Amino acid sequence: MASLEKQLGSDIKQWQWEKVHKVEFQHPIGKVKLFSKFFNVGKFGISGTNEVINNQLFTYSDDVEINVKGGPSTRRIIDFSDIENSWSVLPTGQSGNPMSKHYDDQSEMFVNGKFRKMKLNEEEIIKTSTKLLFKKKE
Predict the structure, then answer these.
(1) Going by C-beta distance under 8 Å and a sequence separation of 6 or more, which residues neighbour residue 26?
(2) Residue/partner pairs of 50-58 with CB below 8 Å, 24 or more apart
(3) Tens digit of pLDDT for each residue in 57-81?
(4) Which of 27, 87, 122, 137 has the maximal Cβ count within 10 Å?
């Protein structure tokens, strides 16, 4: 009880795991404090725990904040009877480039248990995609 009160206060009705349990998606360069704000994604309160479907590994302590040490690299829901009706989400985003708008555009969906439709049909991909064209200098 003392540990929980230290972490969450004395009002039990206000106790929420996400206030203590935090995840930061750390880029290898982001381990250097100077670069962490630019390369790392988060810190987010997150549900989940060890040994459950929303597996967010941690070591319990009575610290005010408990950090996730590992978790899923992706989540997918695949409808094998209608493969084009499948859903997924990544912990950060599709791009490994911090300058891309897709570097961290799925992180909030991930921590909130949301998904996005997987595009598996060539026609749908072409219809909804953007293109970057490079022209050869003459």
Answers:
(1) 36, 39, 40
(2) 54/113, 56/21, 56/23, 58/21
(3) 999 988 989 999 999 999 999 999 9
(4) 27
